[in-house]
Amino acid sequence: MGNEEKETLFAPSRDRARAHDRAAFSLLEMLVVLGIIALLLAVMLPALSKARRAGRNLKCVANMRHVSEKFIIFADDFAVETRGNVYPFDRSTFYLETFQESVYQINDFWDFPNGLSISMDPAREPLMCPEGPYVLKRRANAACSAGAVYPKPNVSIAFNRRLHRPTAGSFQKLLSSRILNYPNVPLAMDVDAAAPNAPSDPYYTAPPLALTDGYENGEHWIPSQRHDGRMNVAFIGGHVGTSRAPLSAAGWRWSYVPD
User: Domain residue spans in the chain?
Assistant: First the structure.
């Protein structure tokens, strides 16, 4: 057998060997690429998660500021359009719960005439924290304190209970435009209504302070620091504060009660 015949005879085998080598090399390249992608994902995912949390925190702060600004208008005798119909004898006064209902759009402020209940949209509802929970509903013909906003464990924003009831056992306090003279008083804040110690009305919260007002035992204090260990607080003055230690934050007037 001549050399040319031998070359022709073994050529297919050599071609297959070279093809096999190329396939093996391609597989190695693919594994290297996959390894690089996995490494990049391991580096980037925590940063992306942090960026998403930061975005949700910005949204929460914007929501809180919106609520605070709405309160300024609601409390201003000359700017407010309506305060509902809960205290018709003196239009210069109002309850905090009435303002709360105006934000939730329940009771006198119901805006869904063809239905008795509706799911709230977390993308549009300023009293739903972007960090969740994401399911909250409202029903017609009921006050907030009567469970018009439910399920209660999903409430994520509550109002300052000392503005609602100065002491744990007192009646609702009538407020007036004078409240606007105290801009550094907390108005609304992050809460965890699913906490084991959550009260029956998680729409309001009050921290325990060195006061004998019925709140000193902490049973109405259900704070949430869901924003990377920080709590967002809206103030009467229209601004929002964020702190890891909200009760010791400088200038935050937690002890204020309306006169």
Answer: 58-248
Alpha-carbon distances of 41 from 34, 46, 52, 233, rounded to whole Å:
10, 9, 16, 35
Locate 257 and state its tokens.
Answer: 């009660």
Q: H or E segment at 188?
A: strand 186-190
Decide if 217 contacts 174 (C-beta within 8 A): no
Query: Under a CB-based contact definition with an 8 Å cutoff, are residues 201 and 154 in contact?
Result: no
What crossing angle do the helices spanning 96-104 and 3-75 adopt, rounded to 10°?
140
Q: Mapping DSSP to helix (H, G, I), strand (E, B) and coil, where does residue 105 land? A: coil
Task: Specify the higher pLDDT residue, 52 or 49.
Answer: 52
Enter the tokens of residue 78: 């000359």
Q: Is residue 160 a contact partner of residue 189, using CB atoms and an 8 Å limit?
A: yes
Is pLDDT at 87 greater than 90 in this prediction? Answer: no
Burial class (CB in 10 A: 0-12, 13-18, 19+), 59: middle
Residues 6+ apart with CB under 8 A from 200: 152
Instruction: Select from 215, 214, 241 the least CA-distant residue to 230.
Output: 241
DSSP 3-state of 171: coil
pTM of the predicted structure, to 2 decimals: 0.82
Residue-wise pLDDT tens digits, 197-255: 899 999 999 999 999 999 999 999 999 999 999 999 999 999 999 999 999 999 999 99
d(CA 19, CA 15): 6
